[in-house]
Design a protein that fits this description.
5 helices; alpha/beta; six-stranded mixed β-sheet; 6 strands
Length: 205
């Protein structure tokens, strides 16, 4: 029996590569958007991480007629009332870079003391099956925002985020160490168990 197809519904190459790493060894044939014709990215217009994750999984799954996983994730900073939140990827405006977002965040926290720079990363991982089955898992990791960017690993806000119980930022951790505690690692470990159970019970594409 051939493994069913599973598309990673993300146009962000860094995130798609991280998700592929987290899905290695599944009894699915994991594909990326690079394996399909170009498609416009959907407008992420929902007001929750769950809503945007499901929106992307539905959009790419229906566009290519394949089961799909997608995630929506972001950084919530207590001193900023939960911002940037669902707007994390575009915090510094349309077309902004990771560095642009990090500079804006550091500027917003310039007068905030170290003990008040409390934050959390949130990830919602969504699956859409060919039969319309929908499943969402959520992962979070608490930590704080560093005074300056540290480390060249990861992407996004990783160089600024220090998880609780550690002294290194996500940008300073090697990928396996990061995934062992990260929001995305936690969400996708739970989603892996669900996807494995689907195949064990006879799911086929």
């Amino acid at each position: 029996m051939t493994n069913p197809l599973l598309l990673i519904g993300s146009g962000n190459r860094d995130k798609a590569a991280e998700l592929r790493h987290l899905l290695v060894g599944l009894p699915w044939e994991v594909m990326s958007l690079a394996d399909y014709p170009p498609a416009e990215e959907p407008e992420e217009d929902q007001d929750t991480f769950e809503g945007n994750a499901l929106l992307k999984a539905r959009y790419y799954g229906s566009s290519f007629g394949v089961a799909c996983v997608a995630d929506d994730s972001g950084l919530e900073v207590d001193a900023l009332g939960g911002a940037p939140g669902i707007h994390s990827a575009r915090y510094a405006g349309p077309g902004c870079s990771y560095d642009d977002n990090n500079r804006k965040l550091l500027g917003a926290l310039a007068a905030v003391s170290d003990d008040q720079r409390i934050a959390r990363f949130v990830c919602c991982a969504a699956f859409i099956g060919l039969d319309g089955t929908e499943h969402v898992e959520r992962g979070t990791i608490k930590g704080r925002i560093a005074a300056s960017a540290r480390g060249a690993n990861g992407f996004g806000y990783d160089p600024l985020f220090i998880p609780d119980g550690m002294s290194l930022t996500f940008g300073e951790l090697d990928p396996d160490s990061k995934h062992s505690v990260s929001h995305r690692g936690r969400a996708f470990r739970q989603l892996r168990r669900y996807l494995e159970s689907l195949v064990a019970h006879g799911y086929a594409s």
